[in-house]
Amino acid sequence: AIEGKKEDFRIGKRMREIRQAAGLTQAEVAERMGCEQKDVSRWESGRQISAYNHYLFCKAVGCSLGVFDDL
Question: Is a pLDDT exceeding 90 seen at residue 63?
Answer without folding.
Answer: yes
